[in-house]
């Protein structure tokens, strides 16, 4: 709330809640949705924020953080939640879990955690969700999920892989943006426009933040997460 007060933006659940574009928002099924993908961008000029005196760009200098936006925010891709028409059978979830567990011995030490069963999904850390999205999800979901749901997952996985790569994030930035826009449009058709909430909509702006600030790990809060224990003490 303090940041919103300084930044002079509405919350993500409010009308015109997107801090990157001028989409008005649509209230549907008890949630605020942002179904458009082509709304005009906001400018850096916000009239009354006290931060204006610092010269900080009030839109361009506040990038989205992909840990809550992507890793924690896009949860329907596991097939265990969301509309009933998109949920997977228990046998499918069991097969995915078995594949995850079977990969434990093949995961190198560079990864902080070994894959865990979907039965523990609600206790997965953001690093595990990132690992699933970028590295192992494309293996364990293939031939289990329906093709259209798997392809939707791959749109997001490839786009985020590009934007997280220091070399490719600039060279293929436009391609990554096209993939993310396609993901949101396809997501809306699969799961329903009533689920295109702030987290899903915000993906279409992620490549623009990377274009300004650099690859995703430059604007990531993952390093701070490692010090939460220190902060608490």
- How far apart the termini lie comes to 24 Å
Radius of gyration: 18 Å
Contiguous low-pLDDT stretches (5 residues minimum) are none
Basic shape? globular
Structural class: mainly alpha
Q: Please tally the β strands and state the result.
A: 2
The average pLDDT is: 85
What count of structural domains?
1
Query: Approximately how much helix is present in the residues?
Result: 40-55%
Largest sheet: 2 strands, antiparallel
Spatial arrangement of strands, main beta sheet: 1-2
- Percentage of residues in strands: under 5%
Number of helices: 11
Topology as a string of helices (H) and strands (E): HEEHHHHHHHHHH
Summarize the structure.
This protein is mainly alpha-helical and 233 residues long.
Q: Could you explain how this protein is built, in words?
A:
The protein is mainly α and 233 residues long. The chain has one domain. Helices cover 44% and strands 3% of the residues. It is built from 11 helices and 2 strands, in the order αββαααααααααα. The protein has helices at residues 2-7, 66-71, 90-102, 126-140, 147-163, 168-171, 173-191, 198-202, 206-213, 222-225, 228-232, and strands at 26-28, 31-33. The chain has a two-stranded antiparallel ribbon with strand order 1-2. The longest helix has 19 residues, at 173-191. The protein is globular, with a radius of gyration of 18 Å.
